[in-house]
Design a protein that fits this description.
Strand content: under 5%
Oligomer: single chain
Structural class: mainly alpha
């Protein structure tokens, strides 16, 4: 019985070790993508306005 409990605790710990970096890494990637889109929006607007003028 003790081995089963120890195995389940190990599996839960492993799951936490896998989930936490995935969530944190995903949040960082989404933040960087959002900031990049936000920062380049004026450039895209200028390009679009220039191409509509000609």
């Amino acid at each position: 019985m003790s081995d089963v409990v120890m195995f389940l605790e190990w599996m839960i710990d492993l799951a936490f070790l896998a989930v936490v970096p995935t969530i944190v890494g995903g949040a960082i990637v989404l933040s960087l993508v959002g900031l990049t889109v936000w920062a380049t929006a004026p450039i895209r607007r200028r390009r679009r306005a220039r191409s509509n003028d000609s």
